[in-house]
Write a structure and sequence with these properties.
Strand order of the largest sheet: 3-2-1-4
CATH class: Alpha Beta
Order of helices and strands: EHEHEHHEHHH
Shape: globular
Oligomer: single chain
Largest sheet: 4 strands, parallel
CATH superfamily: HUPs
Number of domains: 1
Number of strands: 4
Helix content: 40-55%
CATH topology: Rossmann fold
Structural class: alpha/beta
Length: 176
């Protein structure tokens, strides 16, 4: 069971990678996150997943693209729907790579976070599965939230303080 796991950050990857491997999956990571801003934050997360992948022998596919302007053009004046755009963009890219690479399933570490909208992620994943012909594997990985935090600290991995986009950074530091 070859599974392509979209990875938003190293901290959120830990528990899903462990669980998928326990279930017998051959897991490949996919880093594609054009939503992460500013650029220094993007680089920190990319370097952290490279470090984690090296420590855990996780094979990775990197689509290293920083697309600030494209992200802003697609969410400005639609800020309340920015997460939908963000989920769709990253899951679509994952589904495309999964199809091209003949993976059995694709999924995402976004399902590890207590802060993400699981229903929306599942809806988008299922729609893309139909479009690309690769099943979306939904699993609620939130059960391992605290384990992921503990292990990431033990490994000395970079731990971000907000979801990724400039809007979530503002909400983190200034409140909603």
């Amino acid at each position: 069971m070859r599974t392509l796991l979209h990875i938003c950050c190293s901290c959120c990857a830990i528990y899903p990678v462990q669980e998928l491997r326990k279930g017998g999956a051959e897991v490949f990571g996919f880093f594609y996150n054009p939503n992460i801003h500013p650029y220094q934050e993007y680089r920190k997360r990319l370097e952290s997943i490279e470090e984690y992948a090296d420590k855990t022998q996780l094979r990775m596919i990197y689509r290293d693209e920083y697309r600030l302007e494209e992200f802003l053009q697609n969410v400005v004046f639609r800020e309340s729907e920015r997460c939908r755009y963000c989920y769709y963009t990253r899951l679509r890219a994952t589904a495309q790579v999964a199809k091209k690479g003949n993976f059995d399933f694709f999924t995402t570490t976004l399902l590890h976070s207590k802060l993400q909208n699981h229903e929306r992620i599942r809806e988008i994943g299922d729609g893309l599965a139909k479009e690309y012909g690769v099943p979306f594997y939904y699993r609620d990985f939130r059960k391992g939230w605290k384990d992921g935090i503990r292990i990431s600290k033990d490994l000395g991995l970079y731990r971000q303080q907000y979801c990724g986009c400039i809007y979530s950074e503002k909400e983190r530091y200034l409140g909603k």
